[in-house]
Amino acid sequence: MPAAELSLGVTLAVLGAAFLHAIWNALVKSGGGEPLLDMAMICWWSSVVALFFLPFVATPDRAAWPFMAVSAAIHFAYYVTLAGAYRHADLSFAYPLMRGIAPMIVATLGVVFLGERPGPAMMAGIALISVGIVAIAWTSAGRHSGTAIAWALANAAIIAAYTLV
To answer: Do 99 and 159 form a contact (C-beta atoms < 8 A)?
Structure first.
């Protein structure tokens, strides 16, 4: 099947989302406070803003509610592990490690449990991107404790989980 081309609008939306994601992570890390409290405030205010949109969206189908509950639990774990990683490590170490390992976990789980068979080009792309991101993080690995690495790897596993759900 030929690959579909992304429109300029979709490409800009994806790049904008990536930019905003990096910005809020940098703000949480550089805020000077407790990362978990900072993320709780982000969640709180996001929820307040979301309330204004409720009148304009349909109620989710009953079958979606269990998935939403699992997703909420996974995201709670994501925020806890992200706060732990930022409490113990620099952003320049934790962020690339968390984001670099997650695609490898997802690809591996897809092959093992879902029977997916990615082609050589896809596997090479995943490997190159992941190894490159991990290499960026590893240049400063000696300055970070095992605790920092454990929090970052736990967060990578959570990212993989919410990707699959």
So the answer is: yes
> Is 151 in contact with 101 (CB distance < 8 Å)?
no
3-state SS track over the chain: CCCCCCCHHHHHHHHHHHHHHHHHHHHHHHCCCCHHHHHHHHHHHHHHHHHCCHHHCCCCCHHHHHHHHHHHHHHHHHHHHHHHHHHHCCHHHHHHHHHHHHHHHHHHHHHHHHCCCCCHHHHHHHHHHHHHHHHHHHCCHHHCCHHHHHHHHHHHHHHHHHHHC
Write out pLDDT tens, residues 105-162: 998 888 898 898 889 998 898 888 888 887 877 777 677 788 988 999 999 999 999 9
CA 14 to chain centre: 14
Rounded CA separation 92/121 (Å): 28
